[in-house]
Write a structure and sequence with these properties.
This protein has helices at 11-27, 44-50, 68-91, 104-114, 129-134, 177-181, 200-211, 229-235, 252-256, 268-276, 293-304, 317-328, 331-343, 349-361, and strands at 2-6, 32-38, 54-57, 95-98, 118-122, 140-143, 159-161, 189-193, 219-223, 244-246, 261-264, 281-283, 307-309. Helix 1 (11-27) packs across helix 14, helix 3 (68-91) packs across helix 4 and helix 7 (200-211) crosses helix 12 (317-328). It is elongated. It has two domains: 2-164 and 348-361, Rossmann fold; 170-343, Rossmann fold, CATH 3.40.50. Helix content is 42%, strand content 15%. With 362 residues, the chain is α/β, with parallel strands linked by helices. The N and C termini lie close together (8 Å). The protein contains 14 helices and 13 strands. The strands form two sheets. Strands 3-2-1-4-5-6-7 form a seven-stranded parallel β-sheet, with helices on both faces. Strands 10-9-8-11-12-13 form a six-stranded parallel β-sheet. Belongs to the glycosyltransferase 28 family. MurG subfamily. UDP-N-acetyl-alpha-D-glucosamine binds at residues 10-12, 124, 196, 294.
Length: 362
């Protein structure tokens, strides 16, 4: 069987596609997968490292305001559709999977025109533009948040609340949260990360936060992104012990199993991962996310009791310190938040989606 994944190269769109591609290869040894990216090649280095083949098509984002780009957009869309149809003819997939981003639009439309079944996998509480536009044509739509099941013009029977496929799958939460927090003589473990690309505002506040504590107070994993790595690392010069600072952690499950509290953005994949492991979180949503989807994701977790939300414009290290201490110094609060996080996890998401892809392709 051949399956084509159409997705943007950002972590939130690319990572669920990679998890599904791995799952398909595990099920069927002769499985062929191909990724379609935009011609900026964002995400190609990750796919190379994972050993997945990829191709690009030329397409531009949908303009959000009237400009010269909006005048030229129809031509860009037609070019992307033509490239998408050519890619389908070359590769000949039995199923196409779209995980979002503007590059998926022309590929999914080309699949519909060619009579090839396609699945949309929507990660966020607020569906993206490409997924909303293509949803009426999709064979199935799989979402991760209850509020996302309502697609205009789409029959409800085509929409499934499945969850996001994440690394770790059913292995998540193998160490019960109560055990993780009962480690006599060991400090609590903090995870700081700003998503797959890092986040300067979070890095800046978190550095001030950590420098305000005794270095022995926490064990810290700090994912900075490439751009901020050098200065964040130098900020802790002379501390013993130092936080574990990396631009990007490759093996997140080995870190998650020890983490007591995460300070992070509110991207859908990040939230699905911390829920899988029952980790309470302090969320600082990216304020410029399309459609405000990070804010909506964060508020869903806050309403469930799994997270504390701090808006970026009101965030500073003193407020963050107060919230960190309120969670970690009162075990009752930590336990409640951890149980709430576990209630939101969907460890079976990968297996369900792999089943559905295989069923549509046969």
């Amino acid at each position: 069987m051949r399956v084509l994944f159409a997705c943007a190269g950002t972590g939130g769109h690319l990572l669920p596609a990679i998890v599904l591609a791995r799952g398909l290869r595990e099920r069927e040894k002769d499985m062929e997968v191909l990724f379609c990216l935009s011609d900026d090649r964002r995400g190609a280095n990750i796919l190379d490292r994972e050993g997945f083949p990829w191709e690009t098509i030329s397409v531009r984002p949908f303009p959000r305001s009237l400009s010269l780009e909006s005048v030229a957009f129809p031509l860009s869309l037609l070019r992307g559709l033509r490239h998408g149809m050519a890619l389908l003819r070359r590769f000949g997939p039995q199923v196409v999977v779209g995980t979002g981003g503007y590059v998926s639009g022309p590929v999914l439309f080309a699949a519909w025109m060619a009579g090839i079944p396609f699945i949309i996998q929507e990660q966020n509480d607020s569906p993206g533009l490409a997924n909303r536009v293509l949803a009426p044509l999709a064979d199935e739509i799989h979402v991760a948040f209850p509020d996302a099941v309502h697609f205009p013009g789409v029959k409800r029977r085509k929409v499934f609340l499945t969850g996001n496929p994440v690394v770790g799958g059913t292995n998540g939460g193998s160490s019960p949260p109560s055990v993780r927090r009962d480690r006599p003589g060991e400090p609590p473990v903090l995870l700081v990360m700003g998503g797959s690309q890092g986040a300067h505002p979070i890095n800046r506040i978190a550095v001030r936060l950590l420098l305000s504590f005794d270095p022995l107070r926490f064990r810290v994993f700090f994912q900075t992104g490439e751009r901020d790595y050098a200065w964040v690392l130098s900020s802790f010069e002379g501390l013993t012990p130092k936080p574990h600072v990396r631009p990007f952690f490759d093996d997140m499950p080995s870190i998650y199993r020890d983490v007591d509290l995460a300070i992070c953005r509110a991207g859908a994949m990040t939230l699905s991962e911390v829920a899988l492991w029952g980790i309470p979180s302090i969320l600082i949503p990216y304020p410029h996310a399309a459609g405000g989807h990070q804010e909506r994701n964060a508020r869903h977790y806050e309403r469930a009791g799994a997270a504390i939300v701090i808006r970026e414009e009101g965030a500073d290290w003193r407020l963050l310190k107060d919230r960190v201490e309120s969670v970690l110094e009162k075990k009752g609060i930590w336990n409640e938040m951890s149980r709430a996080a576990l209630s939101l996890r969907r460890p079976e998401a990968k297996d369900i989606l792999v089943d559905r892809i295989l069923a549509l392709g046969r």
